[in-house]
Known about the structure:
The chain is built from four helices and 18 strands. The chain is α+β, with helices and mostly antiparallel strands. The mean pLDDT is 94. Strand 9 and strand 10 (175-178) form a beta hairpin. The strands form five sheets. The chain has a six-stranded antiparallel sheet. 18% of the residues lie in helices and 41% in strands. The chain has one domain (3-288): Thrombin, subunit H (Beta Barrel), CATH 2.40.10. It is globular, with a radius of gyration of 23 Å.
Amino acid sequence: MFSKAYQITRNFTRPVAASCRTADGRTRCGLATFIVVNKEGWIVTAAHVLNDMIACQQHTKELKDYEDQRAAIASDSSLSSSQRKKMNSKLIFNKDWITTQSLWWCQDGVIAEAIHADPVSDVAVIKLANFNTASIPVFPKFNPPELDPPPAGSLCRLGFPFTEVTAAFDETTKSFTLVNFTLPPMFPNDGIHTRIQLIADPANNRTVKFIETSTPGLRGQSGGPLFDVSGNIWGVQSRTGFLELGFSPKKKDGNKEIVEHQFLNVGLASHVQHVVALFKTHGVPYESA
């Protein structure tokens, strides 16, 4: 059903590798997905793909404050050794502070020169510098933002799940290298449009719209397209929801009786209206379906 749509959407769907290093020296890396919007290098992805970048900015400040306090204690000649030890013990070192992070946008030398994110709807539009779009023959068409997908209509996601990525950190260059990395195959999975979920955000006095599907999004598909059989975009994959089915079968585990709660995993994609709103606000050229 989606074979023709896949041949369209695969052209502008790309992986992004997110790497980070924590204060205790651990390095982690994972894949997400982004959509190339136009030949100028504008892209759209899920806002939470940027979480480590945002956290790194805050954590860098917190780590510097921690180090400044330790230095002040060490340089205070009025303190005894026991006083220094006691004061240092009250300082909190967070081993999970992110000290360095990187986003690799599927091409070397590419940087994000403009970022506009809406965390509430989980959408981000980004202008990539030095991103070569010459090999992309077609760009996405976005459905009208005032419409919803037809109820029970077929939809498909595309992204890069089931791929383990390892990053090595070079202390000399303060940069990451992906270890033995090759571009992974794309993975589509389909479902039907079950309903629209309206999620209220009292802090911002907003209600945002998500498209729910009968199948879940997969890790690595975040930021990828949710599209119809024509290959037109209805949304950007955001998260997976867990709906309780109300069935709680019991089973034996040795002498213990365990209750297994049953859930339906559903996909939630940021509605195209939030994507188009960011395009219009920030002057991003895009094609309408």
